[in-house]
């Protein structure tokens, strides 16, 4: 296991849709171990594989002392009428926090390291984390979800920080 370096914008790997994992081998097991070790720090809620430079569909989460992972996650349910509008940040966009609208509830399905079906669901921070990490695996950043005027300001602040 290894603590991995976090990729930050404008690294192109963050804008690349990640590939499905078709075979669970030692490389995938090592990736999951690295994701878990790297996310297991105070202030870190989630980490997608592309944030550590690996173009595979896997992420780890660390919410309220619940540490876990999902391989090949897909969102299968979102709350239809219940939303949250809290500030959101990202390890790959350090130091910037902006109000980001997310569904209050999310449910993700994928598999574990043994290839067994895995479901993770939650509201509030867990719901936000699940949506945020699946976005990463699709090549999206939370900045892409901001309202237009807020996004313009965020991009200006981001360019100034580079």
UniProtKB/TrEMBL annotation:
Catalytic activity, as annotated: N-terminal N-formyl-L-methionyl-[peptide] + H2O = N-terminal L-methionyl-[peptide] + formate
Residues annotated as binding Fe cation: 90, 132, 136
GO molecular function: metal ion binding; peptide deformylase activity
Keywords, sorted A to Z: Hydrolase, Iron, Metal-binding, Protein biosynthesis
EC number from the UniProt entry: 3.5.1.88
Enzyme class: hydrolase
One Pfam family named in its UniProt record: Pep_deformylase
CDD domains (alphabetical): Pep_deformylase
The record's free-text note on cofactor binding: Binds 1 Fe(2+) ion.
Cofactor requirements of the protein: Fe(2+)
InterPro entries: Peptide_deformylase, Peptide_deformylase_sf
Keyword Hydrolase included in the entry's annotation: yes
Known role: Removes the formyl group from the N-terminal Met of newly synthesized proteins. Requires at least a dipeptide for an efficient rate of reaction. N-terminal L-methionine is a prerequisite for activity but the enzyme has broad specificity at other positions.
HAMAP family: Pep_deformylase (MF_00163)
Similarity comment: Belongs to the polypeptide deformylase family.
Protein name: Peptide deformylase
């Amino acid at each position: 296991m290894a603590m991995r370096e976090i990729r930050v914008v404008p690294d192109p790997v963050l804008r690349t849709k990640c590939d499905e994992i078709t075979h669970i081998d030692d490389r995938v097991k090592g990736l999951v171990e690295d994701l878990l070790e790297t996310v297991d720090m105070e202030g870190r809620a989630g980490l997608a594989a592309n944030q550590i430079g690996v173009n595979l569909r896997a992420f780890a989460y660390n919410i309220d002392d619940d540490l876990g992972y999902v391989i090949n996650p897909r969102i299968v349910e979102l709350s239809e009428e219940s939303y949250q509008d809290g500030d959101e940040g990202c390890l790959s966009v350090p130091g910037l926090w902006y109000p980001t609208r997310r569904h209050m509830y999310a449910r993700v399905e994928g598999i574990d390291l043994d290839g067994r079906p895995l479901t993770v669901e939650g509201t509030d921070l867990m719901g936000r984390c699940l949506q945020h990490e699946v976005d990463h695996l699709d090549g999206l950043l939370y900045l892409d979800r901001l309202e237009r005027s807020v996004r313009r300001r965020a991009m200006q602040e981001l360019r100034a920080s580079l």
